[in-house]
Amino acid sequence: MNQIKKKVESVKMKLIETILNKMIKVSKNQKKFLIMAVESIISMYGRVNYRSLERQSSCNEKRFRRWFKKKFDFAEFNEIAISETIKIGDEMIAAFDPSFIEKNGNKTSGGGTYWDGSNSQAKKGLEVSVCSLINVSESEAFTLKAMQTPSMEEIKSNNENDTRIDFYLNFALKQLPILKKFTNHFVADGFFSKTKFVNGIVEGGMHFVGKLRKDANIKIPYSGEKKICRGRPKKFNGKCDIDSLEGFSFDCKIDDETMLYSGKFFNEAFDRNIKVVAEIKRTKKGYSISLLFSTDLDLCAQKIYAYYHARYQIEYIFKDAKQHTGLGDCQAREKNAINFHFNISLLALNIVKIQHHFNKEELGIEQPFSMISFKATYHNKNMISRFFPKLGLDLSSEKLSPVYREILDYGTIYSSRI
User: Both 77 and 95 in a single domain?
Assistant: First the structure.
């Protein structure tokens, strides 16, 4: 393993410092600020905004406001960090999803009406669009890049015919050069199974895995004898009847309640052949059918099923970032500062997840990831570093080692071993 993994117990700050040193276009002052800002975000409780960051660090509010407006290549940073967690044989997928952010005020850049999935309704606020990389083998998700979704007025100011799908696609396409270093498969939920988005990703050089509506217009390819006669040869046997699974064949059984049927069909909307997997799930009222698909015709049904359901890991990114690293607490109104806040919040979560990954690899700790435990440990460590010197206690003393470990683990679900 490389030098990043040499000291697992101090990986948090050492990891950030090592990655920043590999980035050419980062000044010495910006490196110091980023290390301090991430350390403060990880160790603090409450809202993560300029005022709170001032209270939890040695910097004043103005310094945070100033640095949050500056540019930083978060995609490059996260690319280097994520590459440290991947082992030979790990299966990776790229995933994309936006998330609603509550925000009041009429002068905030990008303010508009967005879909709030947690309440199943459109609400006024902000939205963050996130490209992530998911390790299917380890069930781990890491953010690559986040960007604020602009309002419809901003989108249409460039082109009258543009929609949010155009923004989502353009943002995803900008990340493809990095994503293709890790995987060939791009996964998104059923909302993005639209002609423009799917074909855009495929033309960008990646296969798309998604979900179709139950009434999707998929046609069964004709495989019968071709007659020599006038006119165009017969290509299809008509539209597939989903309820009767026409054109599908049994593939495998996932568990006692889930079976997979698969087949290759032609999709009218995408104007291409796709592989469709019918996920048959037993319910109390009978059976339910979900249609998953991939533009990769050679991808087996089990992989399509696994990749699509692994996509849900991105939802845990949103949950942990909103609850623990202040994703929804942005105090800024300028576009650059909002984007910086979103990205550094998700970067801080990445760092903690990588710490957990190294714990599993180096220390043999198999507990599931718990952001609550890591947050409590980092908070306790921050308090110890402030209180112990004032009490005249030497942290290098062997007598204090058991006490130090006990205080670090105070309030945790399990020991984070940082």
Answer: yes
DSSP, collapsed to helix, strand or coil, labels residue 295 as: coil
In a domain, 196, yes or no: no
Please give the Cα distance from 377 to 151 (Å, whole number).
Answer: 39
Say yes or no: 286 and 237 in one domain: yes
Q: Say whether both 74 and 174 belong to one domain.
A: yes
CA distance 87 to 97: 25
The total domain count for the chain is 3
Question: Token match 């495929």: residue?
Answer: 202
Tell me, yes or no, whether 132 and 226 share the same domain. Answer: no
Is the alpha carbon torsion for 118, 189, 206, 110 positive or negative? negative
How far apart (Å, rounded) are the C-alpha atoms in residues 189 and 115? Answer: 14
Which structural domain range is residue 404 located in? 371-408
Domain boundary (248, 274, 297) is at 297
Q: What angle do CA 354, 332, 128 make, to 5 degrees?
A: 50
Which whole-number Å values give the CA distances from 120 to 100, 123, 130, 174, 376, in the listed order?
Answer: 11, 9, 20, 29, 32
Dump pLDDT digits (tens) for 16-66.
Answer: 888 899 998 899 999 999 999 998 899 888 899 898 888 888 888 999 999
Same domain for 50 and 92, yes or no, is: yes
Please report whether residue 244 resides in a domain. Answer: yes
For the ranges 25-29, 157-161, 235-239, the maximum mean pLDDT occurs at 25-29
Which has the closest alpha carbon to 252: 305, 209, 216?
A: 305
314 contacts 129 by C-beta, under 8 angstroms: no
The amino acid at residue 346 is L
Same domain, 320 and 180: yes
User: 366: which DSSP letter?
Assistant: -
User: How many other C-beta atoms can be found within 10 angstroms of the C-beta atom of residue 322?
Assistant: 19
pTM: 0.88
Nearest to 361 by CA among 120, 79, 4: 4
Same domain, 227 and 275: yes
* Residues forming beta bridges with residue 286, ordered by sequence position: 283
Answer whether 167's CB lies under 8 Å from 179's CB.
Answer: no
- Specify whether 275 is located in the same domain as 333: no
Closest CA to 87 of 361, 416, 365: 361
Produce one character per residue of 268-290: b if its CB has 16 or more CB atoms within 10 Å, e if not: eebeeebbbbbbbeeeeeeeeeb
